[in-house]
Amino acid sequence: MEKRFKVSYFLNFLGVLAVFFLFVLLFENNAFGRSTQYIKGISTTACYTIIMVASLNLVVGCMGEFSLGHAGFVSVGAYASAIVSNGLTGKGLPDIALFLVALLAGGIAAGLTGVLVGIPALRLRGDYLAIVTIAFAEIIRVLFCNLSITGGGKTMSGIIKLSNFYWSFWIMVVCITVMYMYVRSRFGRTVKAIREDYIAASASGINVTYYKVLTFTVAAFFAGIGGGVYAHYMTAMIPTNFNFMYSAELLSEVIIGGIGSITGSIIGASFLSSLPEMMRQFSQYRMLAYSVVLVLVMIFKPGGIFGAWEFSLIRVYERLTGRKGGWEKSRKKTEGGV
């Protein structure tokens, strides 16, 4: 790995730490007065929404396929993690261990579902794949409405509250980091090559189905993790929460933030997840607001706010100073000596 990338990762990690401690300082000192707990709740909502949106971006941005059933994977993760945590409650596990085990169970359940759906569905492309994913999400929703273990069509309540902002923040950071590394890995580059030219990739000997199903499974796994955080924060849920409109909201956040940009997913999810709270008095117009924002972005920024660009503190430093760091000089010296 180039020294530049190592420095970039280190600086970005310091930036994440700075953001975290800023939130800690604000929340612990009750900086927002009576609204502190309310804003902390919105921040927690943003954390699990970011995980869901970034995972969908793996399918839409990295793989270049159109999915409208992501809420199905979120619901599988949410219900699986809730069932596991309820079953393990009172077994002597610390809360953090119970939370992590439940999240892992939710992620694995959603990932396995992704394999089962992906193998037949990813033979299709474009609108046909979108229709199949919608059908899958509806099948899952109806199934959960008829299973007693999920509460049937009623609310599944009594889920132990394990999510808080601090735990959710670091779970989000870990998930985003792993997804970012996946996109930059050999697997991610191969999937992007398939996205750019499906026929050429197939002709060059790439196992197209394998890489597409793998990416679809990874996206489903992290959607399940996000669903698990959601379940243990809300402590109650009903299958109708994970309907087509929820999938459409997640897709809107991907498009607005930037297709193919993890940074864009973070910004889009943070903004649109807090929008309903900012418009609480006009909640019936929430989807109208989403539509207006989406249309404006499509007109003025067709690629989304960030496009395919990723934020990096080292890039900001280079833009501000107008020069490269010492690592660039050392790389040139090394190349000159070869």
From TrEMBL:
GO cellular component: plasma membrane
Membrane-spanning intervals of the chain: 7-26, 38-59, 66-84, 96-119, 126-144, 164-183, 213-234, 254-275, 287-309
Main localization, broad class: membrane
A molecular-function term among this protein's GO annotations: branched-chain amino acid transmembrane transporter activity
Record InterPro entries: ABC_transp_permease, LivM-like
Pfam families the UniProt entry points to: BPD_transp_2 (PF02653)
Membrane topology: Multi-pass membrane protein
This protein's UniProt keywords: Cell membrane, Membrane, Transmembrane, Transmembrane helix
CDD domains: TM_PBP1_LivM_like
Subcellular localization: Cell membrane
Family matches, as PANTHER family: HIGH-AFFINITY BRANCHED-CHAIN AMINO ACID TRANSPORT PROTEIN BRAE, HIGH-AFFINITY BRANCHED-CHAIN AMINO ACID TRANSPORT SYSTEM PERMEASE
Name of the featured protein: ABC transporter
